[in-house]
Design a protein that fits this description.
Number of domains: 1
Order of helices and strands: HHHHHHHHH
Number of strands: 0
Largest sheet: none
Distance between the termini: 29 Å
Strand content: under 5%
Helix content: 55-70%
Radius of gyration: 15 Å
Number of helices: 9
Shape: globular
Length: about 160
Amino acid sequence: MYTKSTTLGLLLLLLTATSPVQSIEAEEAEKMPPALELEAVINADVINYAQAAYFVLASSEDNSEITAQTAFRFALDKGWLPKKAAADDPAKLGALSFLLMKSFNMRGGFLYAVFPGPRYAYREMVGLNIIQGTADPSMTISGERFLLILGNVLKIAGGES
């Protein structure tokens, strides 16, 4: 099992490895979530929808001015999160899968194309080996596992985001 410092190092490595070969200093530093928030997510036993939306949207687009609340509201308004979700509700793996697929414009298979939603987004993530190990779309996940999943998405999405 990875330690929390190993997970942080892997995420930072993936964030820098998937960006174009440019100066990482100013431009890339603005895109990365603040270290204190990253540490809070790594240490979270269960990640909530606001934290998930913030890290996903901050990683998928040029959102240097985004906050957890504005990211949550944006994802909720776009229909990428459950309609009745509250910012501090524990995030479910199926909903996180759908948020990731929508945020990174990931294409799914036939069933996802016909029935886009958390169920088939989750199945796509498992099929792509983004979600590994014991998992269920209705389960909550730790911040550490969320960051590993996000890192897998960044690795697959590459420069497409």
